[in-house]
Design goal:
Layout lengths: L1 H23 L15 E4 L2 E4 L4 E7 L2 E6 L5 H10 L6 E3 L3 E5 L5 H35 L6 H34 L2
Antiparallel strand pairs: 1-2, 3-4, 4-6, 5-6
Helix pairs in contact: 1-3, 1-4, 3-4
């Protein structure tokens, strides 16, 4: 029974980690290298993450600097950033690509808040699915466990679910405040 609980706990924790990563890619008007995590660059015939073909730094609070390791990749990286539709306009001097993070309009802030809430809701669904899967596994084996054990297990998994759901809500709330208060 404990293995099913541990499995559910691990899945829920992985979901919270995935949410943190997703929220890191949402712009708050401040420069952060994780804003570019979703960008893939066509490098030598394969798609590679931008951070594997360059060094991304934050020289100022609203500027990202991308030091490209291979100068021939500068234009490819610029195109990949533009095609990612993140609202960034890259500029280069032949070796370094700079991105000025634009100020967020009120409309854009609302869109980003909706996106953040969607990420949160998707992760809460994943957490509830982990709960359902673990409880279903125990119910399939109900002949191995007493009814009281099944009930106790269900209560423990529900508490675990509630804890992780509240973590998701807290992360979403913090990110929304970051977006709104800039």
């Amino acid at each position: 029974m404990e293995q099913y609980y541990n499995s559910a706990q691990e899945k829920m924790e992985q979901t919270v980690v995935a949410l943190k990563k997703d929220l890191g890619t949402v712009s708050t008007g401040r420069a952060n290298p994780s804003l570019l995590d979703t960008i893939r660059v066509d490098c030598y015939g394969s798609l590679m993450p931008l951070n594997q073909v360059s060094n991304i730094t934050v020289p100022e609070s609203t500027t990202l600097s991308i030091q490209v390791w291979d100068k021939s990749m500068v234009s490819v990286i610029e195109k990949a950033i533009i095609n990612a539709n993140l609202g960034f306009n890259p500029m280069s001097d032949g070796q370094i690509v700079r991105i000025n993070i634009p100020k967020l309009s009120e409309e854009r802030r609302k869109e980003l808040c909706k996106l953040v809430r969607k990420y949160g809701e998707d992760k809460k669904i994943s957490i509830r699915n982990a709960r359902r899967d673990s409880i279903d596994e125990i119910k399939k084996r109900k002949d191995e466990f007493s009814e009281d054990d099944v009930h106790k297990f269900t209560d423990r998994v529900q508490k675990l679910t509630d804890d992780h759901t509240s973590k998701v809500d807290e992360l979403v709330s913090v990110k929304e405040k970051d977006i709104i208060t800039i």
